[in-house]
Design brief:
The structure is a single chain. Helices cover 62% and strands 0% of the residues. The protein contains five helices and no strands. The model is unreliable at 22-34 (pLDDT under 50). It is mainly alpha-helical and 157 residues long. Helix 1 packs antiparallel against helix 5 and helix 2 (41-62) packs antiparallel against helix 3.
Length: 157
């Protein structure tokens, strides 16, 4: 790592740098907008956001003492899902909306802080990877989701 706090490369710093790149470098096609082939990559991120919210809510239900640490995460991930779904619909109004996440069946092990932290960390990494391949007009949304997930993962660690 670098010699001081100004030289450390964090995920947030890299994502912020991506936002400053010129559109041609960030992957914008000079031929105008083209319709992507295959499923919209934001669908998986929206599904993960709903799943993370459901997992965190289940952890709070299993241990109400986690409410202070996790309720804001539940709210944020629900907002992420809604924003991602709105962007999916904006680009392709005929795209079906992802189904809301259903709570996992009750099992002998109840989700806790560590499980939520791992899920949110994985979601943040996935969003960061997806952001690298998006056109500039979609990068900001996905980068902010990645940064938020990364921050929550650090707070929960």
């Amino acid at each position: 790592m670098g010699a001081g706090p100004g030289t450390t490369w964090t995920r947030r710093r890299v994502l912020a740098g991506l936002l400053l790149l010129p559109p041609a470098v960030a992957g914008c096609s000079l031929g105008g907008p083209s319709r992507p082939t295959g499923p919209d990559p934001l669908i998986a991120l929206a599904v993960a956001a709903r799943a993370d919210a459901a997992l965190a809510a289940a952890a709070v239900a299993a241990d109400p003492g986690l409410a202070e640490a996790l309720q804001s995460l539940v709210d944020a991930r629900i907002q992420h899902a809604a924003a991602l779904e709105a962007e999916i619909a904006r680009l392709d109004p005929d795209q079906p909306t992802p189904a809301p996440a259903t709570p996992a069946p009750l099992s002998a092990t109840r989700p806790g802080r560590a499980e939520v932290q791992r899920a949110v960390l994985a979601s943040g990494r996935a969003a960061g990877e997806v952001a690298l391949g998006l056109p500039p007009e979609r990068v900001g949304l996905v980068a902010s989701v990645a940064a938020c997930c990364g921050t929550y993962a650090e707070v929960l660690a």
